[in-house]
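Illustration: trimethyllysine dioxygenase.
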Amino acid sequence: MSISADVELQDAGRRLILNAAGQRREFAALWLRERAPDAATLDTRTGQRLIEAAQLPLTLQIESASCDAQALHVRFSDDHTTTYALDALLTDAAPDNADVAPGLSLWDANLETLPQASFASALEDDDALLAMLEDLHRYGFVKVSGVPCEEEGMQPLIDRIGPLRRTNWGGIADVKSVANAYDLTMTQRGLEPHTDNPYRDPIPGYIWLHCLSNAAAGGDSTLTDGFMAAQRLKAEAPEDFDCLTHLSTQFRYTDATTDLASEGPLIELDSRGQLARVRYSNRTERIAAHDAALLERYYAARQRFYRLITDEALTVHLKLGPGDMLIMDNYRLLHGRTAYQLEGGVRHMRQGYVDRDSTASRRRVLGGSARHGATHTAQGVTP
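Result:
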């Protein structure tokens, strides 16, 4: 790809200004040096760095730089020369101030078509599996049909992505009404929108919920895009958004054999200020005894956020049938259910967790990043 580009040096070569493809990007000399996409800096097989970046001289400068239609050529004051692909540099440049990362589609109750996948196709075909994972990444959930109605029916597809995350409840666990339930999930009551297990460290990344049978009356699933709700909160009440992104709350789960605790804000931002995670679990949240004024601000902000995540305008309703499965991003999606009655029917779900790193890795590998280089190794241009 040809790109119209020019380059200039500033601050005695400590900074490089790249004007390319209508963008103006600034790069520090040290950043460019430690990212040099050549065999002297990065291992050609693994893409891992061979030099010790922390030992580069803090006074490192760029002595010369030039551009052509595809590449930036640089010579550093340590006599190292290298070449960067312009498209790779523009991809690596600092992102804008968008609320969400590129590639995500926020949605509300007007979502016309649910992201869907076929279990058999995703199990047998890499392209179908990639399409499922891309939808899961973009929308935060996907409905999978044709899952075998067996207790371990979803395990073969997990194995294509996995591994299965084990918890104190085991691997794939039952979700159905039981006597003397140790968790409200195991009762017939409705469940408010929530994220799962915020009391764990790390929090499980993806929820896999497989329906073996559903109740005759009730037991519908509800889904809310937590990022959409957070974005609405920021627009409507920025002071409440600020409170929920800065004040951490605590979450706790205990039973006869388990005592789990963790903490974090209800709305978490990443280092770029983009939405990274929502937490909401009324059943397990335990805010610390802060001063009264701070708690009053927090309670008001939490109430406004609650009204958004329970707003019918932001909620998608669906009822899973035997062989249906939901895969849900537990860092983004809030899920719940309506109350159900067992007269004339049985509601039996099986649930498991798969972590984010393995899921994202599988998507990127299938999408071709492994073939094109997970690091900058394959993004450099041979001088």
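Reading the tokens back as a structure: The radius of gyration is 25 Å.
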